[in-house]
Design goal:
- By secondary structure, the protein is α+β, with helices and mostly antiparallel strands.
- The chain has 3 domains: about 1-140, MutS, DNA mismatch repair protein, domain I; about 150-385, DD-peptidase/beta-lactamase superfamily (Beta-lactamase); about 390-493, D-Ala-D-Ala carboxypeptidase, C-terminal domain (Peptidoglycan synthesis regulatory factor (PBP3), Domain 2, Sandwich), CATH 2.60.410.10.
- Helices cover about 35% and strands about 25% of the residues.
- It is built from 15 helices and 22 strands.
- The protein has helices at about 1-15, 30-40, 65-70, 90-95, 95-105, 115-140, 175-185, 215-225, 230-240, 245-255, 280-290, 295-300, 325-330, 370-380, 480-490, and strands at about 20-25, 25-30, 45-50, 55-60, 75-80, 145-150, 160, 195, 215, 305-310, 315-320, 335-340, 345-355, 355-365, 385-390, 395-400, 405-410, 415-420, 430, 435-440, 445-455, 455-465.
- It has a 6-stranded mixed beta sheet, with no helix packed on it. Strands 3-4-2-1-5 form a 5-stranded mixed beta sheet.
- A hairpin with a 2-residue loop joins β1 (about 20-25) and β2.
- The relative contact order is 0.10.
């Protein structure tokens, strides 16, 4: 902290009107006078770190929220990146650590077997303190992947990224696109056909196809997503498009439609050793996975730990095992696809459902990909919560025809959605109400609908209901005098 304070003081001497946001690991830290200002203006909680040392902050993932708050309060700010994480001495000098150590030393250790036991106890407590204070930043700094990203599968919000926009080979995660195209092809997924004998002659992982085997496209989708069969990818490509080359054209066309601007396919399987033109980015693969998970058949298949299929010549029952170990080892995993080639190294795309929210994680060239994904999900889900959605207007008057009153009051029901913390303010609302309703109307009757959108994606909806009755007007009693007067007028007209 001493280095950070020194840097802060130097910057404040240069320009005292700017609030400095120091990026340390995965957080922005704000110090001393700047912290007091943000506490007063936008309510950020201040932590007292010692005599004349104050700090507040927020995760880097919430920067958009706070930038908006700074603008509303006419606060000038500057982000200061590349601040080194605190070292061991900084933590030992921390006032909270000092307090803990002092309390430990005040303990009456009468009856303890030996001084060595006391020493071990103290060291253990101090190590726990150190780890607790540094766990988030250090854990994420140990992510092995060359490229990584975590996104909200529904809204596309980025919760974490590391070189996420660098082009890299993506190995068999390519098959996400291949399976999606097969499922969207309009072909009968359950009709048996004989595989192309040349297409299945391919190296690498396989679902065990041989000349003359009878399969279905659904079998081949399972073969691609579970054991990562290169033979399945090629066989499906020929069946759907007539040739591997034509299928690859469809893959690149679909990539263009999905705005995967840094993605190019050369093979349906992901084999890439002979070319540098087969590539994507972590960001593009996350976007592709989010699209694929909207397909019910894709979602159902990639979630299977194993499946029993009947294919061959003649067809016979056999089991395919999913190579995605995260399905068993990580809470909430619902897919998606593994990958490996000598060039791409270990690649992994996964989807995880916790807190009624689905996040998607992609790692490319990740020696420790299983642990990478587990760490990233444990971290990122801490920044996701159920939030009440804001409304510009919550009540409306709707005209009533044939009622005692001319209008009826209506109210928008409460709505909530699971979002990245602090992002509810970005939600937009569309109100659908009729120009009028016919009496009678009872309190609680549904009158209209409110839809809530985030990044142009519908995330919630709620009814608009009447909050009062609108009684039917009684018919007017006939006026005998005027009735006969009108009759006479018509008679002599």
């Amino acid at each position: 902290m001493s280095k950070l304070l020194k840097h802060y003081e130097e910057l404040k001497r240069q320009n005292s009107s700017i609030i400095y946001l120091f990026r340390v690991g995965i957080f922005y830290n704000i110090l001393n006078d700047d912290a007091k200002i943000l506490n007063e203006k936008i309510g950020l909680k201040i932590t007292d770190l010692g005599p004349h040392i104050f700090k507040c902050g927020f995760p880097i993932s919430q920067i958009d929220k706070y930038v908006e708050l700074f603008k509303r309060n006419d606060l000038k700010y500057q982000i200061v990146d590349n601040i080194p994480s605190q070292n061991t001495n900084d933590y030992l000098n921390n006032i909270e650590i000092k307090k803990i150590v002092k309390r430990i030393l005040e303990i009456d250790f009468k009856g303890v077997v030996c001084l060595k036991c006391v020493t071990v106890f103290i060291c253990t407590v101090m190590m726990m303190c150190f780890c607790c204070m540094n766990v988030s930043a250090d854990d994420l700094s140990e992510i092995s992947a060359k490229s990584a990203i975590v996104i909200d599968g529904e809204t596309g919000d980025v919760l974490f990224e590391k070189n996420a926009y660098e082009r890299r080979p993506m190995a068999s995660t390519t098959k996400i696109m291949s399976v999606l195209l097969v499922l969207e092809s309009g072909e009968d997924l359950d009709k048996q056909f004989v595989v192309d004998s040349e297409a299945i002659k391919v190296e690498g992982s396989s679902m065990g196809l041989q000349d003359g085997d009878k399969v279905t496209l659904r079998d081949l989708c399972c073969g691609m997503l579970l054991p990562s069969g290169n033979d399945a990818a090629n066989a499906a490509a020929v069946r759907v498009a007539g040739s591997i080359g034509k299928f690859v054209q469809l893959m690149n066309k679909k990539a263009e439609q999905l705005e995967l601007n840094d993605t190019h396919f050369v093979t349906p399987s992901g084999l890439d050793d002979d070319t540098d033109e087969h590539y994507s980015t972590a960001a593009d693969m996350a976007k592709l996975a989010a699209e694929a998970m909207k397909n019910e058949d894709f979602r159902a298949i990639c979630h299977l730990e194993k499946v029993e299929l009947c294919y061959g010549n003649p067809p016979y029952d056999r089991w395919l095992i999913n190579s995605n170990k995260l399905l068993k080892s990580c809470e909430g995993i619902v897919g998606v696809k593994t990958g490996f080639t000598d060039k791409a190294r270990r690649c992994l795309v996964s989807a995880c459902d916790r807190k009624n929210k689905e996040l998607i994680c992609v790692t490319l060239n990740a020696p420790d990909d299983w642990n990478d994904h587990s760490k990233l999900y444990d971290y990122c889900f801490d920044f996701v919560s159920k939030q009440k959605l804001p409304l510009d207007k919550s009540s409306f008057d709707v005209a009533v025809v044939g009622g005692v009153s001319d209008s009826v009051k209506c109210k928008v029901g409460h709505a909530s959605a699971v979002l990245l913390n602090g992002r509810a303010y970005k939600v937009k609302t569309k109100i659908y109400l009729p120009r009028f309703v016919y009496a009678p109307v009872k309190s609680g009757d549904k009158i209209g609908l409110a839809l809530f959108y985030y990044n142009d994606v519908e995330i919630a909806r709620t009814d608009i209901t009447a909050v009062e009755d609108a009684m039917l007007a009684e018919p007017e009693k006939p006026d005998i005098f005027h009735y006969y007067l009108d009759k006479l007028k018509k008679l002599f007209a």
